[in-house]
Prior knowledge:
By secondary structure, the protein is of the alpha+beta class. The chain contains 8 helices and 6 strands. The strands form 2 sheets. The protein has a 4-stranded antiparallel β-sheet with strand order 1-2-3-4, with helices on one face. It has a two-stranded antiparallel ribbon with strand order 5-6.
Amino acid sequence: MASEKNDSATPPTRASCHVADQAPHALRGFDSAGGIWVRQELAHGNFEAWHLFRRDSVGSASVQLFVQPVEGGDPAAIARGITTTVLRDVAPADAAEAARLSHRAREAVKYPLAEQVDALLTSSSKPTDQYLAAIALRYERLADTGNRAPVRRLVEITGRSQGTIKAHIQLARKRGFLESVGAKAGGKVTEAAYDALGVSRPTGSQ
Length: 206
């Protein structure tokens, strides 16, 4: 099957993985949620793997993987088909890393406090005001980006149990860092949360 090469400017990982602007036309129907596609060269450029990652779980395993010959590849190599040698070149971890780095770069533009917040979530040993403010910001962000399981994602980020995370979200509400606003999923971060982190509310946040 002929392919379209739509690599972005994202630098490749050691396995020649690139985040693509879009997948080949024949594969686009598999992505109805607007995920991240990563293209990886296989078998000296005669085949390619397309890894599809969901945006709410970037960095974990891909949800779809397609392997196909590359247009213009060596006819003899392509005629041998997708052999075990070709499949051994598939590097899911490197593709996930490429997706994660791309997602992180995009989030840094839309969400400038991402690194500071995640650093607090992973390094805090106690539910301090700064940590709870970070929980509030991350919880709001996950809900705003359509993550259907924000608590589970916070469990993955922090390494804490689900019960602990739920308790910390409630504590963040009690401390005035997160408030309910109508039907807004997750709630809204308050000025008190930004004050606890010593930063101003980013331009454009509601």
